[in-house]
């Protein structure tokens, strides 16, 4: 098994409802270690750049607006097969389709305000981690 790192975001719907501790507990129970974490306010420019892959999707404008509606917590999670393990704990994008024990099933408000983001591949994880963190901020 490979030790990986992945980029996690606790989205505005989660910070607004003061759910960051409950969500972090689920990550830690799944064997993921929070090796970097900070609370930041995204802007239209930074959220737009982060979600640039979705630029042509119909939900892009609404997604960016929702991501800048309150602070987010950005994190680096480390653990065995962290990318897939993290996506497993998050559950399906649409909370109605998410497994009952997952973050999204328990906490998401909607398919868009779905509480968490996680990188979808090891390659994207490296890019997304570098988007938010300097190497010196990650302390395993
Ligand atoms: P994420 O990238 O945030 O970890 O989520 P994901 O892979 O499960 O979903 P993705 O398809 O990459 O979509 C990114 C985010 O866009 C919002 N979304 N809204 N209204 C809609 O139909 C819709 N579909 C996706 C969600 O916030 C999703 O997490
Ligand atoms: Mg995605």
TrEMBL record:
Q: Which UniProt keywords apply?
A: ATP-binding, Cytoplasm, Kinase, Magnesium, Metal-binding, Nucleotide metabolism, Nucleotide-binding, Phosphoprotein, Transferase
The record, for SUPFAM superfamilies, names:
Nucleoside diphosphate kinase, NDK (SSF54919)
Q: Which parts form a coiled-coil structure per UniProt? A: none
Cofactor(s), names only, from the UniProt record:
Mg(2+)
The GO terms describing molecular function are:
nucleoside diphosphate kinase activity
User: So what EC number does this one have?
Assistant: 2.7.4.6
Q: Where is the active site?
A: 117
- List each copy of the Nucleoside diphosphate kinase-like domain by range: 3-140
Family matches, as InterPro entries: NDK-like_dom, NDK-like_dom_sf, Nucleoside_diP_kinase, Nucleoside_diP_kinase_AS
Q: What class of enzyme is it?
A: transferase
Its annotated compartments are: Cytoplasm
* Residues annotated as binding ATP: 11, 59, 87, 93, 104, 114
Catalysed reaction equations from the record: a ribonucleoside 5'-diphosphate + ATP = a ribonucleoside 5'-triphosphate + ADP; a 2'-deoxyribonucleoside 5'-diphosphate + ATP = a 2'-deoxyribonucleoside 5'-triphosphate + ADP
Give the domain of life: Bacteria
- Described purpose of this protein according to its UniProt entry: Major role in the synthesis of nucleoside triphosphates other than ATP. The ATP gamma phosphate is transferred to the NDP beta phosphate via a ping-pong mechanism, using a phosphorylated active-site intermediate.
The annotated subunit structure for this chain is: Homotetramer.
State the family it belongs to.
Belongs to the NDK family.
Q: What is this protein called?
A: Nucleoside diphosphate kinase
Q: Which organism is it from?
A: Endosaccharibacter trunci
* Gene field: ndk
